[in-house]
């Protein structure tokens, strides 16, 4: 007879949004593989709602991410991890921080552990793991731990409704923002304004999506294109999923919301500079187009509109 699997399983995925979206396939695979177990996710606060909506986890814990000298915080995290009585841990973050969590189980007992922590039971020790696309790397990691059926990420189980925005087709999601500390990943604001105007001229309403910290950026695009709907700071992650399902297309920088649009099946055109490598992190979905220039300042609007036209978003 086969030995029973662990009754309690922990999955670690802390950040960022794009990385979390690319872990949806592994989430589902772990849930299927451990159907009889209680599966817990350890993540950070911004991703709780999305992770809960997918139905992959019985419990979701928020990691306070204690700083190096926060002894009390580290001890609290250690007590919680050890108190969880986990039989297996899947570290999908595979960062130095999350690998250190393995050491918090000292002196034992330690759970079975899939990840990169030294001495763990199921190491992902491929020396070229850092040169693999995130999705492929995680699939190989889980295969090493006995989970071979890792499908593509799927948001179909998530119930979300964008009716409160009062939109009717056709509309396009436009994502001009991105990490503030990585400006090289952003196409110039003026180009996004020109793109929004191009969409509006074709009867496609530009819907600007971004966080509250990007209000000035989205406002500048909306000022230049009065036909645009500015939703800066007004959308949750579930709202973006719902909006993507009804959109004719989505276009934006290499940033988290574009991972959501791609995973939701929306035709998505994603703009890349040499600041990030699509071979390692490109959005995955049934209709994703990557447009790349070494510097996004050198990417003309016409190249992006041509990519959008190819999606069928323009008459």
Gist?
The protein has helices spanning 17-21, 24-33, 48-53, 71-83, 96-103, 134-144, 189-201, 215-224, 237-246, 256-263, 278-281, 301-310; strands at 8-12, 38-43, 59-62, 88-91, 112-115, 122-123, 171-175, 205-208, 229-230, 249-253, 268-272, 288-292.
Sum up the structure in keywords.
single chain, 315 residues, alpha/beta, Rossmann fold, 2 domains, six-stranded parallel β-sheet, 12 helices, 12 strands, 34% helix
Q: Identify the CATH architecture of the largest domain.
A: 3-Layer(aba) Sandwich
Order of helices and strands: EHHEHEHEHEEHEHEHEHEHEHEH
Task: Give the overall shape.
Answer: elongated
Number of helices: 12
CATH top level of the largest domain is Alpha Beta
Average residue-wise pLDDT = 95
Number of domains: 2
Report the C-alpha radius of gyration, rounded: 21 Å
CATH topology of the largest domain: Rossmann fold
Give a verbal description of the structure.
There is one protein chain. This protein is α/β, with parallel strands linked by helices and 315 residues long. It has 2 domains: 8-144, Rossmann fold (3-Layer(aba) Sandwich), CATH 3.40.50.2000; 163-310, Rossmann fold. It is 34% helix and 16% strand. Strands 3-2-1-4-5-6 form a 6-stranded parallel beta sheet, with helices on both faces. A 6-stranded parallel beta sheet has the order 9-8-7-10-11-12, sandwiched between helices. Strand 11 (268-272), helix 11 and strand 12 form a beta-alpha-beta unit. The protein is elongated.
């Amino acid at each position: 007879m086969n030995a029973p699997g662990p009754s309690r399983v922990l999955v670690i995925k802390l950040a960022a949004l794009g990385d979390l979206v690319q872990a949806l396939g592994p989430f589902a695979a772990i849930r299927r593989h451990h159907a009889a177990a209680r599966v817990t996710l350890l993540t950070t606060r911004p991703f709780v709602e999305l992770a809960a909506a997918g139905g992959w986890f019985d419990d979701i814990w928020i990691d306070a991410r204690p700083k190096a000298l926060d002894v009390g915080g580290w001890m609290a995290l250690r007590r919680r991890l050890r108190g969880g009585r986990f039989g297996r841990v899947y570290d999908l973050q595979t960062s130095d921080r999350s690998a250190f969590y393995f050491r918090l189980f000292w002196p034992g007992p330690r759970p079975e552990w899939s990840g990169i922590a030294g001495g763990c039971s199921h190491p992902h020790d491929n020396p070229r793991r850092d040169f693999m696309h995130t999705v492929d790397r995680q699939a190989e990691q889980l295969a090493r731990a006995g989970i071979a059926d890792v499908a593509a990420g799927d948001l179909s189980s998530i119930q979300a409704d964008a009716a409160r925005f009062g939109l009717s087709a056709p509309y396009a999601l436009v994502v001009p923002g991105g990490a503030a500390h990585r400006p090289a990943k952003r196409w110039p604001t003026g180009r996004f304004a020109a793109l929004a105007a191009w969409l509006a001229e074709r009867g496609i309403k530009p819907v600007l999506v971004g966080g509250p910290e990007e209000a000035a950026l989205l406002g500048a695009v909306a000022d230049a294109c009065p036909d645009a709907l500015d939703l800066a700071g007004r959308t949750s992650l579930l709202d973006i999923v719902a909006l993507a399902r009804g959109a004719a297309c989505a276009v934006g920088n290499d940033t988290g919301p574009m991972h959501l649009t791609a995973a939701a099946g929306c035709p998505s055109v994603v703009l890349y500079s040499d600041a990030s490598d699509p071979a390692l992190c490109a959005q995955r979905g049934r209709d994703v187009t990557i447009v790349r220039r070494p510097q996004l300042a050198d990417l003309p609007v016409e190249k992006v509109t041509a990519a959008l036209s190819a999606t069928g978003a323009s008459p």
